[in-house]
Design a protein that fits this description.
The protein is about 25% helix and about 30% strand. It contains two helices and five strands, in the order βββββαα. It has a five-stranded antiparallel beta sheet, with no helix packed on it. It comes from Streptomyces sporangiiformans.
């Protein structure tokens, strides 16, 4: 049966830990051999999906997959622009007849897009990707200084 839950603890070196199922019940044993993602990604609080099995010593999770990875490095979901204003449109496209976005506005919108599409990126990874894309957009004239 497919279930969801949160990782209570996972010892990457020893390769095992426990999941608290979303449904009421006892904690479920998890082993590194049953992880579908890299084991370093499974941290306390990570939301997972798994199949419940009965092992020799009680409930055991198999085919464990990350659903959501919390990160202390995440930025706010909708950061304010440097001038304190909000984005012009929800879809991120410029209104008809408007000029190319400023570098600051483009950085903010790009950061939001990265956070929404890849929640497991660290702040440093977001900064690296963002600066690479900003450099490319500036070189192509897609954004104004």
């Amino acid at each position: 049966m497919l279930m969801t839950g949160k990782v209570l603890r996972f010892d990457e070196d020893r390769g095992y830990g426990f999941i608290a199922p979303a449904e009421a019940g006892e904690d479920v044993f998890m082993h590194a051999n049953d992880l579908l993602d890299a084991k370093y990604l499974y941290q306390e609080g990570s939301e997972v999906e798994f199949f419940m099995e009965m092992g020799d010593k009680g409930p055991k999770a198999s085919q464990i997959r990350l659903v959501y990875q919390p990160s202390g490095n995440r930025l706010p979901a909708r950061p304010a622009l440097p001038d304190g204003s909000a984005a012009d449109r929800q879809d991120g496209r410029a209104a008809a007849g408007s000029a190319a976005p400023s570098v600051a506005r483009f950085r903010t919108e790009l950061t939001e897009a990265l956070l929404e599409s890849a929640g497991t990126l660290t702040a440093d990874q977001i900064k690296q990707v963002r600066e690479c894309v900003v450099g490319l957009a500036s070189a192509r004239g897609w954004i104004t200084p």
